[in-house]
Write a structure and sequence with these properties.
This protein has about 80 residues and is α+β, with helices and mostly antiparallel strands. Helices cover about 40% and strands about 20% of the residues. It has a 3-stranded antiparallel beta sheet, with helices on one face.
């Protein structure tokens, strides 16, 4: 009975929407990330959104692109290879 409860808790945790401000945690969990890059395109300037909800990531990307159309943005679906 205890194992079934633990499995139910784990399934419930995986189904919930999660967000983070930590880029390393987002890479570990394969979260969708919206990132703003520097003007020269060499480095990530800041992480705008990281979470497991694609619709929310696309909405954040579209809202920021509308607000700042000249910004260099990416919507990353998987972490870069190491």
């Amino acid at each position: 009975m205890t194992n079934l409860l633990a499995q139910a808790i784990n399934c419930d945790d995986a189904d919930r929407a999660a967000e983070t401000a930590d880029p390393l945690y987002a890479d570990e969990r394969n979260f969708y990330k919206v990132e703003q890059w520097t003007r020269d395109g060499q480095h990530i300037d800041r992480l705008l959104f990281a979470g497991n909800n694609l619709d929310q990531a696309e909405a954040k990307f579209a809202a920021f692109a509308k607000k700042r159309p000249w910004a260099r943005l990416t919507l990353a679906t998987h972490p870069p290879p190491r």
